[in-house]
Amino acid sequence: MMTEPNQPLPRINSGSDLKTVLNKEGFRLTSQRQKILELFRDVALDHHLSAEEIHHQLVEQGEKISISTIYRALHVMVGLGLLQELELAEDRKYYELSTPFTSHHHHLVCVQCGAVQEFEEVSISDVGAGETQTRGFVLLNSQFTIYGVCPRCQNRLGS
Amino acid sequence: MMTEPNQPLPRINSGSDLKTVLNKEGFRLTSQRQKILELFRDVALDHHLSAEEIHHQLVEQGEKISISTIYRALHVMVGLGLLQELELAEDRKYYELSTPFTSHHHHLVCVQCGAVQEFEEVSISDVGAGETQTRGFVLLNSQFTIYGVCPRCQNRLGS
DNA sequence: TAAACTGTTGAAAGTCATTTTCAATATTTA
DNA sequence: TAAATATTGAAAATGACTTTCAACAGTTTA
């Protein structure tokens, strides 16, 4: 998304950068928000985490943080363009770091086993950018998600 | 989706067709299921309805149908390929008729007012078909959704 | 055609991710 | 540092969706 951004996406590389981005919108830097963003940096760039998983991992690391704080932080960060919200499963949302790299990657989901594969395809983002421009929309985000059955599950089901 | 379908999508044009499709999978034709599908045919082809909206409309028409039946019917019909499930809002799912026509249409959502615009773009479906083929997936469905702010909401917010 | 079989329905209770409430606490600003 | 206000944790609430179960309806079989 944002292949031709009006305002460049903030790149958060250190704690103080995050503070600047938050304060600009009247939000505050808290250790909880820092920890959440650090977690996304510690996992692979294209790794998706649900609120539940984020909470689990942080608690395992010994952090004291509640699940409601996770949800609130995710909202704020999606609003600031730091994170990207993904619809990968039926019943919950997933999040990943929003960076120029991930902006052209899309998802292929196996509806049987839930496995997710990524693929890069710039042309899709370009179509999205073109459509929004034509219609005068401000582009916030776009998602291309394919649902199917992976080879393994096809065999398993004797398809 | 299904630009090169293995099995052509069933086209449901009359009550008896629906019966055939349902029975083939061990399901039964009921007046409730018929009423739901008729509702989709009465609205514009590209119109999306949530479970709640379907229920509301049918009750308003004087039909006696419960919300749980709606949810159950939607599941069955998505499973049969008659309907398409869409992720247009944060908190609920929308459904539309699954036809060759709609298979190349995608959605542009205003996150402020919720307005949804449609656009046709075959190249997107082609990319999806190509990716799934390359990876050996069976393609079930794909969605390209763009989230942004529509011109009217931009003005309203003084952006 | 009627009985047997089995899928479906409505109503109400249950589930579960996410949100909200509220008092205590932390960050920011003056 | 104090005042102003955003944030947090815990628990309760919300709300979309699912499930349970007994009554009922479509299908099948004899």
Quick tags:
homodimer; Arc Repressor Mutant, subunit A; three-stranded mixed sheet; 41% helix; disordered N terminus; DNA-binding
The CATH superfamily name of chain A is Winged helix-like DNA-binding domain superfamily/Winged helix DNA-binding domain
Uncertain regions of chain A: pLDDT < 50 for 5+ in a row? 1-10
What would CATH call the architecture of chain A?
Answer: Orthogonal Bundle
Q: CA-to-CA gap between the ends of chain A?
A: 36 Å
The average pLDDT of chain A is: 83
Dominant shape of chain A: flat
**SSE order of chain A, as H and E?**
HHEHHEEEEHEH
CATH fold name of chain A, please?
Arc Repressor Mutant, subunit A
Biggest protein-protein interface?
A-B, 33 and 32 residues
Rg of chain A: 17 Å
Structural class of chain A: alpha+beta
How many strands of chain A?
A: 6
Helix share bin of chain A: 40-55%
Strand order of the largest sheet of chain A: 1-3-2
| Count of separate structural domains of chain A | 1
- Count the DSSP helices of chain A: 6
**Oligomeric state of the chains in view:** homodimer
- Major sheet size, sense and barrel closure of chain A: 3 strands, antiparallel
Account of the protein in words:
The structure is a homodimer of 159-residue chains. By secondary structure, the first copy, chain A, is of the alpha+beta class. Chain A has a single domain, classed as Winged helix-like DNA-binding domain superfamily/Winged helix DNA-binding domain (Arc Repressor Mutant, subunit A, Orthogonal Bundle). Chain A is 41% helix and 21% strand. In chain A, the strands form two sheets. Chain A has a three-stranded antiparallel β-sheet. Chain A has a three-stranded mixed β-sheet with strand order 5-4-6. In chain A, strand 4 and strand 5 form a beta hairpin. The longest helix of chain A has 14 residues. The radius of gyration of chain A is 17 Å and the shape is flat. The N terminus of chain A is likely disordered. Chains A and B meet through helix 5 and strand 6 of A and helix 5 and strand 6 of B. Strand 6 of chain A pairs antiparallel with strand 6 of chain B. Chain A binds a DNA duplex (30 and 30 nucleotides) through helix 2 and helix 4.
